[in-house]
Amino acid sequence: MNGPGKIKAVIRFNFLGFFKNTRIILTFLLAVVLCFLLSERVIRVAEHYETSMQAAEPFIWTFGDGTNVLLASLLLILMFSDVPKAGPVTPFYLARMKRMQWMAAQFFYIALGTILYAAFIMSVTIILCQKYTFPGNIWSETAVRLAYSELGDSMGIPASVKAMESITPYECMLQTLVLILFYSWTLCFLMLAVNLRFGRTKGIFAGIFYSLYGFLLEPDIIARILGLEKHERYKVNVLTGWISPLNHASYPGHSFGYDKLPTIFQSSVLFLVLLAVLGLLSCRALKRYNFTFMGY
After folding, report:
1. Spatial separation of the C-alpha atoms in residues 192 and 98, rounded to whole Å
2. What is the pLDDT of residue 295?
3. Is the residue at 215 inside a domain?
4. CB-count exposure of residue 140 (10 Å: 0-12, 13-18, 19+)
5. Among 81, 135, 185, 250, which is most buried by a count of CB atoms within 10 Å?
6. Residues 151, 132: Cα–Cα separation, whole Å
7. How far apart are CA 28 and CA 120, in angstroms?
8. pLDDT tens-digit readout, 89-115
9. Please, what is the average pLDDT of the chain?
10. Are 42 and 159 spatial neighbours (Cβ–Cβ below 8 Å)?
């Protein structure tokens, strides 16, 4: 079996019994509950004004908010708390392949598992709101009400005038999904690197700390702590927009040619650089990692 074939075999082993794992089942069940709670505000607006929404808008507005992205990503700490995955067959694979090939399989396992999770929360959000949506690729009357008035801000729904003027709903949904994936990958790759270097418990704490770091750098949180007025928040918004991974994962927190915030492309490049660094750290930690298989 060649190198790619060996990597595929380990990936298949990692996914073996994936949907029978109690921890995975619990993660997806909690994701359904989370999507239900987070999308409630969007549904309430559509019901109150008796207006429809474009099919992509509930997902864009629900997970265009940094706090909601944070809440969704926290479930990934539960989902990937056991990476790197090792089982009774692991010694068999390690004796027949290079450690770096085994590590590549771990990377692909995390990447594919995260894609599956992100696609799931997107699908659940769309399904929950389908009674009020239409498929056409144009912004809805509900979007207009939220974006061009203070209704969106008052309800915490990030409907963006800048987005509506520059992109279609489905394109916006795709970009929102990509940003969530990048943020989730950095969280999971950080856990993997710390698990390899310091042990599994430390990896979980690293994931929690990474999430807490992003939450504390939310512009509204900093503004309340410093007691800033609304007109004084611009510099804080720009600063946190660049140094906070969570703000990079928030679609409305980007520049559309009007300000000094990062663009979607710049955020993507920064996430890729961070992923590359975490990948290198994981590979270095693997060289000193002692595999133990007691209890299997």
Report:
1. 18
2. 47
3. yes
4. buried
5. 250
6. 18
7. 8
8. 777 777 788 888 989 999 999 999 999
9. 87
10. no
Q: What is the span of the domain harbouring residue 101?
A: 3-287
- The torsion of the CA quartet 59, 132, 158, 229, rounded to 10 degrees, works out to -150
- Which two tokens mark 104? 């590549």
Peptide bond preceding 88: is omega within 30 degrees of 0, i.e. cis? no
For 132, the token pair is: 């009020």
Residue 252 lies in a domain: yes
Measured in residues, the chain has a length of: 296
Residue whose C-alpha is closest to residue 37's, from 143, 124, 113, 105: 124
Residue 51 lies in a domain: yes
Q: Report if residue 292 sits inside a domain.
A: no
Give which of 107, 33, 72 is closest to 180, Cα–Cα.
Answer: 72
Q: How large is the average pLDDT for residues 202-228?
A: 84
pTM: 0.91
Q: What is the largest CA-CA distance in the chain?
A: 64
**In the numeric block, which tokens belong to residue 226?**
């410093």
What radius of gyration do the chain's Cα atoms show? 21
Q: In a 10 Å sphere around its CB, with 0-12 CB exposed, 13-18 middle and 19+ buried, how is residue 144 labelled?
A: middle
**Count of domains for the chain:** 1
Residue carrying structure tokens 């007025």: 229
Q: Could you read off the pLDDT of 154-203 as tens digits, one per residue?
A: 777 777 777 787 889 999 999 999 999 999 999 999 999 999 888 778 89
